[in-house]
Here is the input.
Amino acid sequence: MTSTVASLVQSINVHTNDINAVSFSSQLLATASSDKTVRLWNTDDFTEATFSPLCGHTYQVYCCVFSSFGKYLATGSMDGKLILWDTKTGQRLASFQHQSKNCIRSCCFSPDSTTLVSGCDDNTLCLWDLGLRKFIRSLEIHEASVVTCVYSPDSVFLVSGSTDGDLTVWDGKYGHGKPLTFTMDGHDLGVTGCDFSPTYGSATVSEPLSTHYLLASCGNDNLVKLWDMTGGLGGPNVKLSLRDTLMGHTCQVMSCCFSPNGTLLASGSGDKTVRLWDPHKGEPLHCIESHSRFVTCCAFSADSVFLATGSNDRTVLLFWNCMY
Here is the structure.
């Protein structure tokens, strides 16, 4: 494997507890921690924003994500709250809760920024209308906590994963309550993360009225998996088929993400490493061994130049992606 794929350029050591999530917009990096805070960092020099930290949660913050154009930041916590923030001012714009008020484990925006989705320990997904700031509907099929959710790049489909190991595909446009398809035991010890390639598939029409996507998932089985997903435009004909299994981690894989240019896939693991993969060939490229504890999260910058990784060692590390 190449030894010069990524080089460490910055270490953030401000949080006082585990790092649980990292997310980039074009101008900011968000870091979420079990210390109950979310901190924002300017991507030009990684200095902290003047209105950081965001202190609206009362327990561990498990997820954070920016909307497509970086206008909003959503954060979810063990306190059961999903908070929407203004990224220019740090102002709290809205707060949502599932009816159960259970822990929020995951959240994502639709790429068209019309909908916010949250996954919860009550085994459900909730859809929220961003414009009206109101509940749309709940999606229920999982029999365990919904720990990851992601939209396809064209906002047509929504995929969720849970601790029971299932991957489920939903109608992302209209939020119909029944799943379009699901894969039982996508990871037989539980799914921990999933992500769509932002460049592969949604522009590739594989069959008439059908679109092809590339989905990555990771789990407690120490594996990263790549899936071919085809979906009939405007219809329920969705297929999810295993394309490749990426082996190399020696402990549970806790996160995975594509670079925005689609050329790299990163995965973070309980084995304290971050691995970089060629998602098209299914081949390993590089292994980063810079954290002293579990690597819980990873994210590429909007221009694919930087990779941020977060860990139970309470640090966020920034690497320069030499392959962008």
